[in-house]
Design goal:
Layout lengths: L1 H19 L4 E9 L4 E12 L3 E3 L1 H11 L2 H20 L8 E5 L2 H5 L3 H12 L6 E6 L7 H13 L3 E7 L6 H6 L4 E4 L1 H6 L4 H17 L2 E4 L5 H9 L4 E2 L10 H8 L11
Parallel strand pairs: 2-4, 4-5, 5-6, 6-7, 7-8, 8-9
Antiparallel strand pairs: 1-2, 1-9, 2-3
The protein binds ligand C2E and magnesium ion (MG) (2 copies).
């Protein structure tokens, strides 16, 4: 017990140092429309640890949330993402791309969250309507009114919102109607089992219809095979993301893979 506590304390210390020293970085996973055009990317935090190698966000995001480091982490992630957006928008080949950033419930609920996002947008010069904040349904477990208020302010400045891991949590249609969302992100567990589990196939079709009914965009994540992508495309899912199209990668590799003039799908100058 004591050993576990001190290991945790050490990891927390190291995470803090990684955030403050800028070691904590972002990888980017491409998102495509049904015609195969690159429409944007999702930014995913990555922590290269000197002894442990790459620590997964599945491990360090909960630690950051419990320790309060998520505020500094989220701030650093937003600065990195908005700096990239500002670079993208200065080039006609990338100016239309959007960047999705994950925001944890604790980060979103912090009193300074809205001001922080707006200040980062101002300071980096990134256009708000190219930034998409991914929230999860866990946010709806408490203080829905405050959540709606904050989202409404940011939407007023042009920032978009997606509901991540949709279908896995607490989904009330009433909230879905009231939240100022732009996009539903179908959880990757549904894409994974869409061909083997008829109820997942039905769920995917239902979410796509739900999106259409509420005037929301829909994206499927975790698409790994052509057969899954064919199913999703035929079901009407407009945007797709997953290993089939590419893993999350460092920005240099992202540029080399998707943004070089050889790419036939891109209007490069
Ligand atoms: P998420 O936002 O739902 O991200 C999707 C996860 O699925 C990512 O894992 C991604 O690498 C992985 N993935 C993408 N395509 C596929 C695929 O085809 N198959 C499979 N099996 N997996 C795929 P990752 O990068 O390990 O991130 C895990 C979670 O950590 C994210 O889930 C998100 O909730 C959280 N996270 C990551 N970065 C941040 C961040 O900057 N801030 C916050 N608050 N949370 C973050
Ligand atoms: Mg996400
Ligand atoms: Mg997700």
């Amino acid at each position: 017990m004591q050993a576990r506590l001190s290991e945790r304390a050490q990891l927390e210390d190291e995470l803090k140092t990684a955030i403050l020293s800028g070691v904590l970085t972002l990888h980017y996973q491409a998102q495509f429309d049904r015609q195969g055009r690159l429409v944007g990317a999702e930014a995913l935090a990555r922590w290269p640890h000197p002894q442990r190698g790459w620590v997964s966000p599945i491990d360090f995001i909960p630690l950051a949330e419990e320790s309060g480091l998520i505020i500094a982490l989220g701030h650093s992630v937003l600065i990195q993402a908005c700096t990239l957006l500002a670079i993208w928008q200065s080039n006609p080949a990338t100016a239309e791309l959007t960047l999705a950033v994950n925001v944890s419930a604790r980060q979103f609920q912090h009193a300074d969250f809205v001001d922080d996002v707006l200040a980062i947008l101002r300071n980096t010069g990134a256009r708000p309507h190219r930034l998409k904040l991914e929230l999860t349904e866990s946010l709806l477990l408490e203080n829905v009114e405050a959540t709606i208020d904050k989202m409404t302010i940011l939407r007023g400045h042009g920032v978009d919102f997606a509901l991540d891991d949709f279908g896995t949590g607490f989904s009330s249609l009433t909230y879905l109607k009231r939240l100022p969302l732009n996009q539903l992100k179908i959880d990757q567990s549904f894409a994974r089992d869409v061909l083997t589990d008829p109820s997942d196939a039905t769920l995917v079709r239902t979410i796509i219809t739900l999106g259409e009914t509420f005037g929301l965009g829909v994206i499927a994540e975790g698409v790994e095979t052509r057969a899954q992508s064919d199913f999703l495309t035929e079901a009407g899912c407009p945007i797709l993301q997953g290993y089939l199209y590419g893993k999350p990668m460092a920005i240099e590799q992202f540029k080399a893979t998707y943004l070089t003039p050889q790419q036939p799908d891109l209007d490069t100058p």
